[in-house]
Amino acid sequence: MASDADGGGEPEAGTSLEAPERPLVVFCRKCNTILGDTNAFVCTHPALKTITLGAAYSVTSKKDEVETPPEGEARGSSFYRFYCESCSECVGKVFLSTTRGLDPMRDNYTFDSHAIRSYELSERPQTTVENGSGTPNSSVLLDRLEVLETQLLKVENLMLLFNERIDALESGRGIKR
Ligand SMILES: [Zn+2]
After folding, report:
1. Of 7, 37, 53, 86, which sees the most CB atoms within 10 A?
2. Residue 42 in contact with residue 53, Cβ under 8 Å?
3. How do the domains of the chain map onto residue ranges?
4. Residues 113-122: pLDDT tens digits?
5. Measured in angstroms, how far is the CA atom of residue 91 from the centroid of ligand 1?
C-alpha cells in the first residue's frame, strides 16, 4: 500500500523485527488484564515506543473511528484505536495503512508501551514486587499446575484401585445393591 513517492533514501528509524529474547506477556497497565504475548510478536518501534503483536486478547476497537495523524512518526498512516475490554483504556492502534517504515505494523495490534506493562517469562520463578499489585507469576503457576496434574492422576488411579477392591469385597461377601 505504500506509494513509491515517499522520497526514499532517508534512513528511517522504523521498526525492529527482532523479538525479545524471552517471551513477554503484555498486560493492561491500568487493570492488569492480559492483552497479548510475544508468541505473536511482529515488531517493536523504538521511536514510537510500541510493540506490535499479530494477536490480542480482551480488546475492543472502534473500527470506524479512523485517524490520520498529521505529524510525528506515524504521519502518513491511518489507524483506529483499540481498548482494553475490562477498563476501556486505550492501549494501542491498528494501522490500516502505513508509510513504508511502519509496514510490519499494518493490520496488527500495536500496543503503546505507556499503556501496557509487560512481564517477561523466565526459567526461574521471580516475584514482581515493584508495583505491589501481585501479578501472578506464570512460570510458578505452570509449575504448580504440573504438580497438581500429577497428584490428580495419582488420586484417580487410587480411586480406580479402591473401586476394584470394593467390587471384589462386595462380590466376595455376596453384597448386592
Ligand atoms: Zn485495562
Report:
1. 53
2. yes
3. 24-120, 136-177
4. 999 998 887 6
5. 8
pLDDT per position as a tens digit, 125-151: 555 555 445 566 788 888 888 888 888
Domain 24-120 class in CATH: mainly beta
Report the length, in residues, of the chain.
Answer: 177
Reduced to 3 states (helix: H, G, I; strand: E, B; else coil), residue 148 is helix
Spell out a b/e string for 96-132, using b for 16 or more CB atoms within 10 Å of the CB, else e. bbbbebbbbbbebbbbbbebbbbbeeeeeeeeeeeee
Report the 10 Å Cβ neighbour count for 87: 13
| Separation of CA 159 and ligand 1 centre (Å) | 44
Q: How far is the CA of 14 from the centre of ligand 1 (A)?
A: 28
Q: 46 and 16 in contact (C-beta within 8 Å)?
A: yes
**What does the alpha-carbon distance between residue 25 and residue 69 come to, in Å, rounded to a whole number?**
29
